[in-house]
Amino acid sequence: xxxxxxxxxxxxxxxxxxxxxxxxxxxxxxxxxxxxxxxxxxxxxxxxxxxxxxxxxxxxxxxxxxxxxxxxxxxxxxxxxxxxxxxxxxxxxxxxxxxxxxxxxxxxxxxxxxxxxxxxxxxxxxxxxxxxxxxxxxxxxxxxxxxxxxxxxxxxxxxxxxxxxxxxxxxxxxxxxxxxxxxxxxxxxxxxxxxxxxxxxxxxxxxxxxxxxxxxxxxxxxxxxxxxxxxxxxxxxxxxxxxxxxxxxxxxxxxxxxxxxxxxxxxxxxxxxxxxxxxxxxxxxxxxxxxxxxxxxxxxxxxxxxxxxxxxxxxxxxxxxxxxxxxxxxxxxxxxxxxxxxxxxxxxxxxxxxxxxxxxxxxxxxxxxxxxxxxxxxxxxxxxxxxxxxxxxxxxxxxxxxxxxxxxxxxxxxxxxxxxxxxxxxxxxxxxxxxxxxxxxxxxxxxxxxxxxxxxxxxxxxxxxxxxxxxxxxxxxxxxxxxxxxxxxxxxxxxxxxxxxxxxxxxxxxxxxxxxxxxxxxxxxxxxxxxxxxxxxxxxxxxxxxxxxxxxxxxxxxxxxxxxxxxxxxxxxxxxxxxxxxxxxxxxxxxxxxxxxxxxxxxxxxxxxxxxxxxxxxxxxxxxxxxxxxxxxxxxxxxxxxxxxxxxxxxxxxxxxxxxxxxxxxxxxxxxxxxxxxxxxxxxxxxxxxxxxxxxxxxxxxxxxxxxxxxxxxxxxxxxxxxxxxxxxxxxxxxxxxxxxxxxxxxxxxxxxxxxxxxxxxxxxxxxxxxxxxxxxxxxxxxxxxxxxxxxxxxxxxxxxxxxxxxxxxxxxxxxxxxxxxxxxxxxxxxxxxxxxxxxxxxxxxxxxxxxxxxxxxxxxxxxxxxxxxxxxxxxxxxxxxxxxxxxxxxxxxxxxxxxxxxxxxxxxxxxxxxxxxxxxxxxxxxxxxxxxxxxxxxxxxxxxxxxxxxxxxxxxxxxxxxxxxxxxxxxxxxxxxxxxxxxxxxxxxxxxxxxxxxxxxxxxxxxxxxxxxxxxxxxxxxxxxxxxxxxxxxxxxxxxxxxxxxxxxxxxxxxxxxxxxxxxxxxxxxxxxxxxxxxxxxxxxxxxxxxxxxxxxxxxxxxxxxxxxxxxxxxxxxxxxxxxxxxxxxxxxxxxxxxxxxxxxxxxxxxxxxxxxxxxxxxxxxxxxxxxxxxxxxxxxx
Length: 1183
Fold this sequence. Notes:
Largest sheet: 6 strands, antiparallel
Structural class: alpha/beta
CATH architecture of the domain at 1-150 and 1114-1183: 3-Layer(aba) Sandwich
Radius of gyration: 69 Å
CATH class of the domain at 1-150 and 1114-1183: Alpha Beta
Strand content: 5-15%
Strand order of the largest sheet: 2-1-4-5-6-7
Number of helices: 20
């Protein structure tokens, strides 16, 4: 079969590196539509399936046969180190844009995923980094994905057919291509939820903004008042500054005159002070000259004194040196006598040593001869002892073998006896354990546990039913809550509209009734008439006649209704401006009224019970009513001359005049508006009652929901406890069953071990008997060896005694020779030492004699100049007396000049003090002047900052203006500002900004409401398309399943069934009956039958929506050869449209493959590929 080239999306190859056992970069090609992967167990075949699942977005480690995400990285082997990352890449052929959208223009599509040891997982799409969602979105609706029906791994076939209905639905959704719709629906619901949250936040913001706008309105009014007072304060402050400047200017001029006067006095003191300083400077020069003469005389005195000191020091040095030389002369004579004595003693000792050495030489020679003789005898005795030692060693080697043999055999005997003892103890323990196992065996406990498990399971099912019932009730109550909330929102919206309409109409009505005039309202309030009703508020007109009544009454509708008009006439004079009409109510209406009168269309409003009667006759007594102008004209001739007639549309006419009012003004429609206001109040009251009732129902529903939530929580807790108890009972049962099985197994092991121990004991007893015989033989040999040992030991003692005696004599001779030798060496060394000492003593005697001669000569030379030095000292003492007289005279002149200088210094100090006082006073005045000048400049700067000219302000001030009066006025204005309290000056701008923000939020609110409606429509559209596609897919797959099942089984029937009528969340169940069987559930089928049923279902889905490829991992494992043949035939037929990659150990399946790949693990832990092209192999074999 040639390699395929078609227009469908197909998998070209897989590239792996570091993924599980594929550590080396490996490329797995898929050139045909039937590719088989074979290999022994554990070689890594299934890792190919895991690689495809992983790169397509699988994030759960257990679905990849791992515990953590990083377990997919190669973790090393016995000869390889772990790697740092794993990489898998899928390469697709995409001819003619099989994948639509933005990737339709690519002929190849590459998907790659990389993970490192830090669990950082990265996806790449055509080499560009992307998100996991981008990968999954590409394959939505194609049947491909990490958990789609296109990848069927080991065990998935049985799990698929036994899956829950909602899990089975997922495969049908993928085939129907509605998984993308579900994803869009979920995104739309999220957007709706976010939109509702935004809407709620927006409503809160609008409410808060309304409150803030009211507050800003009040603050802006206060801010305007504050600004007016602030301007007045600024004016007073500027005028006050001008007054202060004027006062400071006067003060500065007076201070400047005072400064000029004090500066003249200060300059006089400074002049006198400078004259004193010149005199002091002349005295200092004369004092310096006197000091110089005194210092010269004193210097001469110092020179004479220094010479006298030198003469005295020379005499003292000569005396000290003479004393030292005499002391050295005595020491030299003593040392000379001592060295002469030492020389005499050394000569005597040298003579004695020489005599002793002459006597010692013959004795040393005799001791050397005796030592040599004893050394020969010692050698012979040691040779004899060595010969005996060799004989003793040979005997010990012979005797040791017998002893060792006896010891070995005795050890073996102990070992065998210990082994027999242990074997018997082990047998006893096993017998006890066997007896204990018989006693522990109890089958009744397992039966009791089974009953408890069954009871717990029933209770668990009942609790589940109760929980479902409670959940359904909660859903119903939540639906009721939602309905109540919608009704409340609707009623609140209606209330807001009614309130708005009522407020608007009420404002118009107040203006129409003249209540907007502050002057009239103030006058009515002053005379306690403000609460009296207006005429329009008292009248109740039949519908349709409002225009006619308004035409007749006109401005009289604004009239204030009082009990009696006459007492009010005195108050009219107090009304200075405006107009007001008062109507009394004492006049009763006549009982006999003509039917055509307008009064018959009017009634007094019952709500104003304080009005006893009303003079309708005075207002409408001669006015008749007609439906239209024609009827009015017909009725007019029959009326009296003073009578008139008015129509419904407001045409008022009499015998002599006609009045028509068509202008629109604020007073028009007062009566109709009044009736509408009454109706609005009734509607608002009714709406409020309904709202209160629904809110009560809402609160009741909430309490019911809370009660059900508590009940559900208790039921869930009970269900959890039952599940925990059920799991514990099952675990206990498994433990007991395992324990029983282990006990049975242990009994068999004990019996077998006891038999083995008995056989082992027999063998050990026989070995023990043979070992004891060998031990007796070895003991006999040891007795013979003992006699020989005694003879050898006697001979050894004799030889050892002779050897010790010879060694003792040898040691004595050796010690004697050594003593003589040491004595000779000692005396020779002492002789050499004394000879050297004698030479040193003689040398020192000679040196000491020469030292004494030198010292005598030195003393004679040192004492020679003493008389000359004494004469010079006398002359120096005489010169020092004359110099001291000259110094005293010079010192007297210096003291006279110092007194004069001190007197002048005191005068200068007094002048300085007086100058400082004057300067301090002058500086104080200058500082005060400067302070006033600074204050004046500060005022000028303040006024300059305010763009005000001082001269202009001063010119505008009144003549009687003063600082105190202006300060009081400023304080009054500041007090008024203070009474205003905290002022928000930004309130005016904030009011404008917040008003604009309010308009923006209102627009945003409308946009969100509109967006929410659009999203709701989108969800309804998605649900409609989902239902339609799911229904079509279900019917198509069900029909294909019913057709394919008999083909796979060779008969029988199967079908799919929906669990509910709701196509959005219904589940799927599978019913299959192989030929000759009438099973009631799919779970009664065998493993092979379940596998064939699942294959039929999967391939039915493939017929509807063929995925680009299908991967099968040992799906044929539970099938026999006949069913494998059917399975292979089915795959061959479908391979025309679908690319199949299958893993199998079955030979029939291998024969089906057009391209066969082998996975080997020659190197431990590392998978490698071996490819075989079947057609090439067949062609090669045929050739």
